[in-house]
Write a structure and sequence with these properties.
By secondary structure, the protein is α/β, with parallel strands linked by helices. It is built from 26 helices and 28 strands.
């Protein structure tokens, strides 16, 4: 079935006009199932509520199928961004979150109020001093007291509390209030009215409100198409009275603020910038978890001046062309070198002069480029540095320099590059000068830059070929920013003022909006499966190498661990249990990094380049040994104790009993789970790239990036599938041979 799916996917890629079979559109609404009256489970076990009734009517009018998806409120963003839900529609406050989602217009006016027990002596907000107040986690009430937009009055009020507690849902809040573990709840007025009404006369609401806000429907940023469809239906429902009818049903008629005259911000254009999130100072994630950088500041100002909504989209740099050509991003704006790529994109004019430089450790004996002879140099995959040494436009001087290296390695990001350099597994990094300056400054005095530059180039913004309209709009705004000084102000903020080269006299490079004969030939070559297989051959060998050696070492090590795990000595049992727990409880990628770089960072032991291959095998072997150990133990314990007793009566020693009786039956018992682990191992070999070890999937990603095609990835997927079929067939044959009872 998987093979059929992959083949059908390739067919769809070949024929982009192929359409899936007609099916009814689904509309999945994410909601907190404990948030009445907006969404909750009633006595009949049905999900009901004001928002769900609105969603149901929207779906009815559009011919969609409504899927009500209860979610953990703390995980709502992951649910939305992963595509598990289409929107968050559940009394969702837009205030303070305006830039985090694509919003409908607000439809409910809501306030934060305080609920206390009916016999409480709390009558004013000031009476909450030295009291314990509870709010729902990640709620508007919490934001009203502690958020960035919280008023000074509310912040002081919160400081006067004995404690501000958070709970996961309002049922827990009311249990706490009812049992006097807290003295008040701060919550939405609509929910408060419902809860007070449904719980009799046990609770009451204070007259004073903490804050006021509005509810709207939150869609994934950039998903204006779906937002517009839902919004237009809501306005239609408001116009014909259906919304007011539903609101009255849920006693919320006084809170409705949607007007038939309201307009969504559907006219607001989104501008999605694709960038490498590990490329400071141009784009990266700061200590607060925000995406920041020089290029992102420029993009933000461009959007501000054009009235656009900026969407910052981190991308895998190897997949940047697929992201751009598929329309997932509008441009590549991240210290993007145009030199050598002039015909591949529609470009802005260059705005930064950049050079490729070499970074070494401060105490290195490398002082000139010629000193790199017989040294291992690392570059980022598909980077300007790689192109400077191996690209079509690389100078003869640089090609000769690269030939003098012991090895030119590629890594996925500069963090990995500096880990390799710091641990002496490589001797130099070639990278952009702006990034080099930032990295050296941020890492203290451990590194330095050579005076000689490898190459010089310019940065520009890359748009999809032929998209001159968007390029022109962005470009004219950049010129305006340069003219009024804003551009230089942003450059100074990021210490790049000496690198700015933006000039209105520069000429655009549009590339060729229609594919040339040469490009057409390249596209035909993309579908040359045999050619791709040849390119993947080295990666396949590397994958098989990891697979074979891991099995050779992990199976006996797993058996030894089994003996330790079942030892009569408690200390041995305990150590084996700890080992297995660590191996099974931590990510394999982390274990690989620890094995590779641990000797240097923990014991200051410098290891040469050849250790990298050993680290891959060691990391995989010790990980899989832990899983095999538990499978072996289960196989042994599944054998009836009576067989050991019978062997003892016959005079067999413990060793003879295990070799001649227990071991053979254990092998028969464990073959199915061992087969599963072996198949998993085949796929896990792709994690070896964490140690800059190029196996088949990493090589496929690099080829896919070079060809701007997903086909190499499908070819790699077919390799994994075919290889796993062979593994499964061999294991089934072995299992059949051992099935001697039949």
């Amino acid at each position: 079935m998987l093979l059929l799916t992959m083949l059908l996917s390739v067919v769809c890629l070949v024929n982009p006009n192929a359409e899936a079979a007609n099916s009814k559109k689904t509309f999945t609404v994410g909601f907190d199932a404990e948030f009445p009256p907006y969404g909750y489970k009633d006595d009949n076990g049905e999900y009901v509520g004001f928002d769900l009734d609105l969603a149901s009517e929207v779906c009815k009018r559009n011919g969609w199928e409504l899927i009500k998806q209860p979610i953990d409120w703390n995980s709502k963003d992951m649910e939305l961004n992963s595509g598990s839900i289409d929107c968050i529609w559940n009394g969702f406050t837009m205030d303070g979150r305006e830039n985090e989602y694509t919003w409908s217009t607000p439809y409910i006016d809501n306030s934060q109020v305080v609920v206390v027990k009916s016999d409480s002596d709390i009558n004013e907000l000031s009476d909450l001093k030295d009291k314990i107040v509870v709010v729902q986690a990640d709620s508007s009430a919490l934001a009203a007291f502690t958020g960035e937009d919280a008023t000074e009055e509310n912040k002081k009020l919160a400081e006067s509390f004995k404690e501000l507690q958070q709970v996961g849902d309002y049922n827990s809040a009311f249990l706490n209030l009812e049992s006097d573990m807290v003295q008040a709840i701060c919550m939405d007025i609509g929910v408060a009215n419902y809860q007070i009404k449904s719980r009799g006369n046990a609770f009451r609401m204070l007259d004073s409100h903490v804050s006021s806000e509005k509810y709207a429907i939150g869609f994934k940023k950039g998903n204006t198409e779906l937002r517009d469809a839902v919004q237009s239906t809501l306005l239609e429902m408001k116009s014909d009275g259906e919304i007011d009818k539903i609101a009255k049903k849920w006693s919320l008629e006084t809170s409705v603020c949607l007007s038939a005259d309201d307009k969504s911000d559907s006219g607001k254009k989104t501008f999605t910038v694709g960038f490498d999130a590990e490329f400071p100072p141009y784009g990266y994630k700061d200590d607060n978890g925000e995406y920041v950088g020089f290029d992102l500041d420029l993009a933000s100002e461009v959007c501000k001046r054009n009235g656009w909504e900026l969407i910052k989209q981190p991308i895998d740099w190897n997949s940047k062309d697929m992201e751009l050509n598929s329309g997932s991003i509008d441009c590549i704006w991240n210290g993007f070198t145009m030199d050598g790529r002039e015909n591949e994109y529609t470009w802005s004019t260059p705005y930064i002069d950049n050079s490729q430089v070499v970074v070494v450790k401060s105490d290195s004996d490398i002082n000139e480029l010629s000193d790199l002879k017989d040294k291992i140099v690392v570059v980022q995959a598909d980077s300007s540095a790689l192109a400077a040494f191996t690209g079509e436009d690389a100078t003869e001087e640089n090609k000769k320099l690269a030939e003098s290296f012991k090895e030119l390695q590629q890594v996925g990001d500069y963090n990995s590059a500096f880990l390799n350099l710091e641990s002496d597994m490589v001797q130099a990094i070639c990278m952009d000068i702006g990034v080099a300056n930032y990295q050296i400054k941020s890492r203290g005095n451990a590194f330095r830059m050579l005076d000689s530059h490898v190459s010089s180039e310019k940065y520009a913004i890359g748009f999809k070929k032929g998209n001159t309209e968007l390029r022109d709009a962005v470009q004219s705004t950049l010129f305006e920013m340069k003219s009024d000084g804003e551009f230089d102000k942003i450059a100074k903020k990021w210490s790049l003022e000496t690198s700015v080269c933006l000039s209105a006299d520069d000429k655009y490079i549009d590339g060729d909006s229609a594919p040339s004969a040469e490009n057409t030939q390249d596209e035909e070559n993309e579908w040359d499966i045999w050619n791709i297989c040849i390119q993947l051959f080295d990666g396949i060998k590397a994958t098989l190498f990891i697979f074979a050696l891991t099995l050779i070492f992990s199976l006996p090590l797993g058996l030894a661990l089994t003996f330790a795990r079942m030892s009569r000595f408690k200390i041995v049992q305990w150590l084996a249990q700890i080992y297995i727990s660590i191996m099974r409880g931590t990510p394999l990628m982390l274990q690989l990094l620890v094995v590779c770089y641990g000797p240097y960072y923990l014991f200051n032991i410098s290891l040469d380049q050849s250790y990298r291959t050993y680290a891959v095998i060691i990391g995989f072997s010790i990980n899989y040994a832990a899983y095999f150990a538990e499978i072996f133990r289960a196989g042994i314990q599944a054998i009836q104790p009576g067989q050991r007793e019978a062997a003892a009566i016959l005079g067999y020693s413990r060793g003879q009993t295990f070799r001649k009786i227990i071991f053979k039956q254990m092998i028969k018992n464990i073959l199915p789970p061992v087969t599963n682990e072996i198949i998993t191992l085949v796929k896990d070999t792709s994690l070896a790239f964490a140690l800059t070890y190029i196996e088949v999937f990493t090589l496929a990603k690099q080829i896919a990036a070079a060809q701007t095609s997903i086909v190499p990835l499908f070819v790699a997927g077919l390799f994994y599938y075919v290889f796993n079929i062979i593994v499964a067939f061999v294991m089934q044959r072995i299992e059949k041979r051992l099935n001697y009872y039949h």
